[in-house]
Amino acid sequence: MKRVVVGHSSEVTERRSRIVHVDGVEIAIFKLTGGKLRAIENLCPHKNGKLSEGIVCDHHVFCPLHDWKINLNDGLVQEPDEGCVRTYSVEVEEATGNIILLVEQGSSLAS
Ligand code: FES
């Protein structure tokens, strides 16, 4: 795993998200109430809705297209629907406030 800086914590509002691209994959970084970050692929497994535009409630996001509920901790779609969204490890660097995304070796940062 390597650590990639993808922005600054101040750029993400609570219960909102910011989109970054890593190796052509669009990733939505959400800030939960209380400030914790979660990162998931910005693609609903139902019909490719942009999860970054969904409503965040606690540690779930509701897809803006058909309201599927997705757990931001593990990417699992909640019943009665099913599926899974890819998740990424993300943290805030204490000293700088930078958002660090942990990606597989060999990946590179796009924007
Ligand atoms: S595209 Fe997300 S619920 Fe349909």
UniProtKB/TrEMBL annotation:
Specify whether Oxidoreductase is a keyword of the entry: yes
Entries under PROSITE patterns matching the protein: RIESKE (PS51296)
Q: Which residues form the Rieske domain?
A: 4-99
Note the Pfam families from the entry.
Rieske (PF00355)
Per its UniProt entry, which superkingdom is the organism in? Bacteria
Q: Does the keyword Lipid metabolism apply?
A: no
Which InterPro entries does the entry mention? Answer: Rieske-like_NirD, Rieske_2Fe-2S, Rieske_2Fe-2S_sf
What GO molecular function annotation could you give as one example from this UniProt entry? Answer: metal ion binding
- Keyword annotations: 2Fe-2S, Iron, Iron-sulfur, Metal-binding, Nitrate assimilation, Oxidoreductase
Q: Name one GO biological process term.
A: nitrate assimilation
Q: What is this protein called?
A: Nitrite reductase, small subunit
